[in-house]
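[step 3/7] fold_predict: job queued, chain A
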Amino acid sequence: MEAKKNPKADVGRNSGLYFVIGLAVVMLLTYVAFEWKTYDKANNYDISMNVEDNLDEEVPMTEQLKTPPPPPPPAAPEIIEVVEDEQDVEETVIESTETSQEEEIVEVADVQVEDVEEDVDVPFAVIEDVPIFPGCEGAKDKRACFNEMIQKHVGKNFRYPEISQEMGVQGKVYVNFVIQKDGSIGNVRMRGPDKNLEDEAARIIGKLPKMIPGKQRGRAVRVPFSLPITFKLQ
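[step 4/7] structure written:
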């Protein structure tokens, strides 16, 4: 025997409508929850530094006292000197400074200004007459002979400092010196990687002989010269 079901008793026939209504209600409640705002009744900010609180205090008014200007000094009375008619008044005679034709005109002798020799430094590369190293007097190219003799002098007197060898110090020492107007060596300056190497370079330059000074326009001048000395361990 089959059980008969009443179509009106079907509880699932309106489930889709109920689902839509429930979804709309949930969305409405969610929107209201996000838009809901609350305000605190008490003020939590600090009003201790408000300017209005200090407006009730009375600020004393300062009045600037105006100092009257000092009175002007009294005018000095004018002294009027009365001269009697009979008294002779000396007249001031103003003499002319112009020279008359009768006066003799004295001419000032011409003043001779002596030429003062100035110390001029002329580089070795551009000087007209280079300094002459002893032994280069008869050389045709005295500039090349000078450089050659300088290199020979360095090689002859070269000595590697033992302390620099033990420490493994090597490099170039750049030496600058000036050949003076009397042919002597002066103003020696060194720049290198080690103090011992600089001292050795100064010792080598100190042994340079006196030279015939360089000349520019026939006058002896000072000639600066630069020389690199290489210290290299074998």
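[step 5/7] annotate
The first strand starts at residue 171 and ends at 179.
The chain has four helices and five strands.
exit 0
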